[in-house]
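PROTOCOL LOG
Step 1. Enter all chains and additional molecules of the complex.
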Amino acid sequence: MHELSIAESIISTVRNEMKLNGYTTVSEIGLRIGEMTDIVEDSLRFGLDALTKGTSLEGVEVKIETVPLQGKCEQCQREFRIVEFKFVCPDCQGVAIEVILGKELDISYLEVEIDTTQEA
Amino acid sequence: MARIEIEKKVLSENEKIAARLRQQFSSSGVTVLNLVSSPGSGKTSLLERTLGALAEVIPMALVAGDVQTDNDAKRLEAAGGQIVRPIITGGACHLDAAMVEKSLTEIDLNQIRLLFIENVGNLVCPSSYDLGEDQKVVLISTTEGDDKPQKYPSMFRRSSTLVINKIDLLDYTDFSMESARSNALSINGKLSVHEVSCRTGTGLDGWYAWLTELVARKNPDPKHIEENHRL
Ligand SMILES: Nc1nc2c(ncn2[C@@H]2O[C@H](COP(=O)(O)OP(=O)(O)OP(=O)(O)O)[C@@H](O)[C@H]2O)c(=O)[nH]1
Ligand SMILES: [Mg+2]
Ligand SMILES: [Zn+2]
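Step 2. Run joint prediction.
Step 3. Record the structure below.
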């Protein structure tokens, strides 16, 4: 259940961004999560709900973009989608496979309201 | 309303601390292994054995993570560990880099050559948290099934070495060594594999030789270390 720690990190990053940039409201958080991060989406949403309840972020929309696992064969350079965690090159059967996509755990964007009185 | 592309890594704080740790380990020439497994696969047992065999030759420190107790740290001290630090996570299912950094504040890295970090018994959560280690060593045991790699692919993918423990119990289980190896290697073809029993000692000589070589390779000429610990 590291989803709760992950949710904590997300919330603290968002609050930090709000403070630094004078966002008064965040209505949506965009996440990009790779297939190889073992994050259970429901648990993450549960954690985010629990941690934002009663705060200014309560009810914030969370959009999750899942990134499929993508590998590159070190032997023949073929790039391919890794299905069911089979790290084997479909062309040369090589097993030295570099993961090029699928480890992401990023906050890609925020939908915000900016406090204009603080600007300039 | 405006959409702001912020592109922040969720674990950037952990990664920052891990990078700082890795830098310190590297400048002191300390080899650091992050031991991960399900609860009870034998991490502490492997460390007890390793202390018994190598504590005289390789100056080492051990950090033992646990959710509630410092039992493992006590076992490691009893097994001859000179520098042992418990980390009680108080509920968290993994160690993070900040916990490790805090536990190391009083350890002089120049006086050791090897640091073991025993992670919390859990094959999921610790995989996302870099602790600044050289590599993760994942343990499985013959009593927990040979399909662990399929069930927890990320951990096997992010580890460099696999220790298969409790081979003394092979005859009492339906564990197939061949399947375990091929399951693990189909996820990570670069894994080096050790088959051991921490109960009988079978296979441990290979583990000690591998460790010694790893430590020597990281720092062939440790200036702060006494002559008899030069390997
Ligand atoms: N038969 C047998 N038992 C073993 C072996 N290695 C460890 N054990 C036993 O397995 C149990 C768990 O071992 P530990 O070393 O505590 O396992 P651990 O991975 O440190 O456990 P946690 O820290 O709780 O995750 C103990 O009762 C050990 O004595 C082995 O090679 N053979
Ligand atoms: Mg233990
Ligand atoms: Zn190939």
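Step 4. Note key features.
The domain at 2-218 of chain B is CATH 3.40.50.300 (Rossmann fold).
Residues 12-28 of chain B form the longest helix (17 residues).
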